[in-house]
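A favour, since you know our structure tokens better than I do. Just paste the record in under my message, thanks.
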Amino acid sequence: MVQAIASRHGYPISDIGMYIQPMEHNRACRPEFNFFYDPGNEQEKQAIRSLYQETAKLLLQEGAVFTRPYGDLAPIVYERTASYATHLKRLKKVFDPNNIMNPSNLCF
């Protein structure tokens, strides 16, 4: 799926960084995909952002779990997991009542 989306966006499949970590006695895995680009090139940066967002949305629809949603990924994940976001906000209030650790970064 990742390769198909990358291909549609014109990203070379051979340039995708892929890492797969088997877990739970090989019953599950933790895949990681990296799309390399020149951060100084605004056009390339926007193209990768679009590729990344489409990939994340499709993987979520297919049952992927993102354990550390931040940056562009956070709104994609939290809009689909309202009860999870609510619990995270509650926990943050318990452990950070003055909102000094990463203010406005957890679940927005």
Summary: DSSP finds four helices and two strands in the chain. Strands lie at 16-23, 28-35. The CA atoms of residues 70 and 105 lie 8 Å apart. The two ends are 29 Å apart (CA to CA).
